[in-house]
Amino acid sequence: LLRREGWGIEFDAGFRHRLYQVEDWYGSLVSKDEADWFQLHLGVLLDGKRINLLPALVAMLREFPQVFRQQRLQALDPQQPLIVSLEDRRLVSLPLGRVRTILEALFELYQPGSLDENGSLTLSRIQLTRLMELETGGDALPIDGHNDLLRGLTRQLQGIDQLPTVTPPTGLQAQLRGYQLEGLAWLQFLREQRLAGVLADDMGLGKTVQTLAHLLLEREQGRMDRPSLVVAPTSLMVNWRREARQFTPGLRVLLLHGGRRHASFKAIPQHDLVLTSYPLLARDRERLLAHDYHLLILDEAQSIKNPKTQASRVVREINARHRLCLTGTPLENHLGELWSLFDFLLPGLLGSAQQFRRTLRNPIEKHADERAAEHLSRRLRPFMLRRTKQQVVRELPPKTEILRSVGLQGAQWELYESIRLAMHRQVREAVAEKGWARSHITVLDALLKLRQVCCDPRLLKLETARQVKQSAKLELLMELLPEMIEEGRRVLLFSQFTSMLGLIEAAVQQAGIDYVKLTGRTRDRASPVAVSYTHLTLPTIILPCRSRWW
Question: For residue 39, what are the contacts with CB-CB under 8 A and spacing of at least 6?
């Protein structure tokens, strides 16, 4: 106030309570000896000199951890001054809003030992998204870098939605849709920048074909001088081999599965694509670790959502130039699963498990903190690509759904009503005695029995049910199938009950309809799948299904 009125103010050199005002802010990023590591300085200009603030801020965090909790900082007025004591004992007044931005973006500051002896914060290439957070928003803090490649990567991460188009490989036996071409460009970007990511498209949008196109392009352009390893659930082994043969016949594929796989390990270097399953990782650990890989791909990557499992530990040991996760469900139960995926892909991007829980997971899950959710989303945006069917619906062929109601009649209807009344009474008695919370088993059992009667009375383990020969759904099916087959259609039949599949199997056999059957008990999955794809005259495939029933 005095200065604005024209007063000149002088301070004695020994006066300890002088409050310095910030002239400007700066950020500086310098490459270390190693190409992938950088030193970050954040500070202010005082009397024309640069003063690094990181040591002072970390000292305050250590001394007053409760004062600087993220939620408490957010509740304070951003214009409120924060008085910081520098190493030379000078005091500087900082606007809380600017400091809060720094603390939120660089949550390594919450951990002791995060700074080196020079007061700089060491960051890896994969942590550059945090610098992007500092350079955006109302309290933007520009970062001066002395590395053109680093600044180029930062600009590309910021413009991840405008990646240049990539020409598909010439040997690809498929026509990629627009969103799949974008996926290929994204995969190529990750490879070019030595980064990793999660391709999290909805099921059915072609994650496998996008990945195969990426692999084939790597081979055609001479970069894949090592084999690439795919780890997938056992049930998907045949699917990967079949789609590789169909879409990328130029790739040499090796399937490591079954008791005879041991003789194939020595042939790994002679192949482009090696397929193995999660259950075999621990058993074949030494054989797999004996080789280096160009790309390590985890299909249905939620299988490593628990970082303490053997499979999670083994995949982290495998030496590969690049890593990729494929999953339509990157998050199933809690954010800790997302942390596990990125701890495998880009260790350090989300900090340690404890840091992530304290600064992001707990605020989001327990307090619905939208600001923390926004920070997490922005940090992961360059490294996760997810498209839903609704987003790309214009590029998908039209789908027609016809719901057909089937009415129960005669003995089947009478059986349904008798069971419904009996189970209704049983459920009411259970609820009266135990309450709703402890009657779930009784309710589920009632629903199961009613569903079974609707499918086919023979599914019930009751003598009275076995005597009922009517099955409205099965009768309708056997009316529809011959007509569909005459029209040249191929049919997939699903049921949640494998015993229902057995009844359908007997019916189609009696009708003289060719079919293949695939259930969880099918040991040789390759043969029925191969038959169903190669013999176009085969009209019917019978499969179990978890999400729907007859």
Answer: 29, 30, 32, 116, 118, 120, 121, 122, 123
